[in-house]
Design brief:
The structure is a single chain. With about 475 residues, the protein is an alpha/beta fold. The chain folds into 2 domains: about 280 residues, Rossmann fold, CATH 3.40.50; about 200 residues, Orthogonal Bundle (N-(1-d-carboxylethyl)-l-norvaline Dehydrogenase, domain 2). About 45% of the residues lie in helices and about 10% in strands. An 8-stranded mixed sheet has the order 5-2-1-6-9-10-12-13, sandwiched between helices. It has a 3-stranded mixed sheet with strand order 4-3-11, sandwiched between helices. Strand 7 and strand 8 form a beta hairpin. The longest helix is centred in the middle third of the chain and has 25 residues. The protein is globular and about 65 Å long. It starts with about 30 loop residues before the first strand and ends with a helix.
């Protein structure tokens, strides 16, 4: 194997069975600015843009923005921002993607980020900043957070996506840059509304006049995104290097499945993503709920339960029959009856497909990666379903066990030094309290006090009993006993 690195000059040397850009990389322009140029974005939205560019739609290149680390930029600059997507299903396939033109690191040059969003050629801003990037506390923007407080004081050097967008909107309004669409591509219900609320909050503080321009020129919209994309490891880098005969410092792996459903409320030009497999719909809400309550919720269940069972990857957890049956039953017996779905979706078939995708052993997805920021995720993935089930007098017993497993997951991962969560310090304080006496404290930190189940004595008693059972035996035995009763 050569020790040379992937680059534009080396594209012609790559094996013929690897998909490489058919477009001239020098001819594309960045019509899109994307916040959060991590693995998911590069294996999902960027691939749709890659397909558009291959069709001659040259204005849908991407400028990436990182609000924290320079690592992705530093990895991609030496290889001209090219990188490989390895699709790992029953067989392997490889694509070299060339849509990213540059990545800006916000803390290094905040004004450069503001300027690129304000440029007339920028028609679309997209985000994959994860749940914690929205700074929500029980569904509301946490104005006490230090980053939000910074941007409320000044947006000359923003700390948040809200701050960059607000500052850019002020500049766009002054220079007449034209309409702009801001599109949430995170696993967030009504994520576009969250972005709108944050930007409006900052404009009300810093430039109230811009709010009038905003109403006429900017659309904040949501989308439902779906593609399993695990973290990049050394094994993946070696697979890609062997296939390309070149080194790629930042390849990304993904499953064959990919879905993108977009709310059709664009301001100005709409990228023709429907030509490359995306779906435009009038109402995104039911599609968001399907993804959050079935796929994302199931992922979070497997992360908590699998970690307690001692597994490392998602597909391993589903090799345990009792746990696999439990997760399926939770989704079909507790969640499905209280989740409205579009007419085009068969809930039971969708759940079966989701679990089958999770079983893909060729795409090992680490449980700790799925379990990252779980205190933010379960607020949308689990809590509404519990309230809906209780209000409908439906079964919520499986979800009670899920909550108990999550509490035990937080406790164990803290003690083992594995927890990755923005509330880690606060959870640590809970763990220092007497065991099992602090379940309400854990759930309060995750925003449960805003939901009705938190004050439902019967439901909470079940959670506490399941916690005791897990501690007394183990999670797999607790689940086995429960589903056999």
């Amino acid at each position: 194997m050569k020790e040379e690195q992937l680059s534009v000059l080396k594209l012609s040397e790559i094996n013929n069975d690897v998909d490489v850009p058919s477009y001239d990389l020098a001819s594309i322009t960045s019509g899109i600015v994307h916040f959060g140029a991590g693995n998911f974005h590069r294996a999902h939205q960027a691939v749709y843009c890659h397909s558009l560019l291959n069709m001659g739609e040259t204005k849908w290149g991407i400028t990436g923005v990182s609000l924290h680390s320079s690592a992705m930029r530093d990895n991609l600059v030496p290889q001209d921002y090219l990188y490989t997507v390895a699709t790992l299903g029953g067989s392997l396939s490889f694509q070299v993607i060339g849509v990213i033109q540059k990545i800006l690191v916000g803390p290094e040059k905040p004004q450069a980020v503001i300027d690129i969003v304000a440029e007339k050629q920028t028609l679309l801003v997209t985000t994959t900043i994860t749940e914690k990037g929205y700074y929500l506390n029980s569904g509301e923007i946490d104005i006490d957070n230090e980053d939000i407080a910074n941007d409320l004081k000044s947006i000359e050097s923003p700390k948040t996506t809200y701050g960059y967008l607000a500052a850019a909107c002020i500049k766009r309004s002054l220079i007449g840059a034209g309409p702009l669409t801001i599109l949430c591509c995170d696993n967030m219900q009504a994520g576009g509304t969250s972005l709108e609320n944050g930007v409006k909050m900052l404009l009300a503080r810093h430039s109230p006049d811009t709010l009038i321009w905003l109403a006429e020129n900017v659309a904040f919209i949501s989308s439902m995104v779906d593609r399993v994309t695990p973290a990049t490891d050394q094994k993946l880098k070696e697979k890609v290097a062997a296939k390309l005969n070149l080194l790629d410092a930042a390849p990304v792996a993904a499953e064959p499945f990919s879905q993108w459903i977009i709310e059709d409320r664009f301001a100005g030009v709409r990228p023709p993503f429907d030509k490359v497999g995306a779906l435009f719909v009038e109402d995104i809400t039911p599609f968001e709920q399907v993804k959050l309550r079935f796929l994302n919720a199931g992922h979070s269940m497997l992360a908590s339960i699998g970690y307690l069972a001692g597994d490392q990857y998602v597909h391993q957890v589903l090799q345990r029959p009792a746990i696999a049956r439990f997760v399926e039953n939770t989704l079909k017996l507790n969640v499905m009856p209280v989740t409205p779905v579009p007419k085009s979706v068969n809930s039971e078939v969708y759940i079966d497909q989701v679990l089958e995708r999770f079983r893909n052993r060729n795409l090992p997805y680490a449980l700790l990666q799925v379990g990252t920021d779980s205190s933010q995720k379960i607020q949308q993935r689990w809590f509404p379903s519990i309230d809906n089930a209780l209000m409908a007098n439906g079964d919520s017993s499986y979800l009670a066990l899920c909550i108990a497993a999550w509490v035990c997951f937080i406790q164990k991962s803290l003690l083992e030094g594995d927890l990755n969560d923005p509330l880690k310090e606060q959870f640590t304080n809970c763990v220092l309290m007497p065991a099992l006496g602090n379940i309400e404290d854990f759930l309060s930190l995750a925003g449960a006090q805003k939901f009705k189940f938190f004050n439902n004595s019967s439901f909470m008693a079940s959670v506490k009993q399941f916690c005791s059972d897990i501690v007394a035996t183990d999670v797999e035995q607790t689940i086995t006993t429960f589903i056999n009763n």
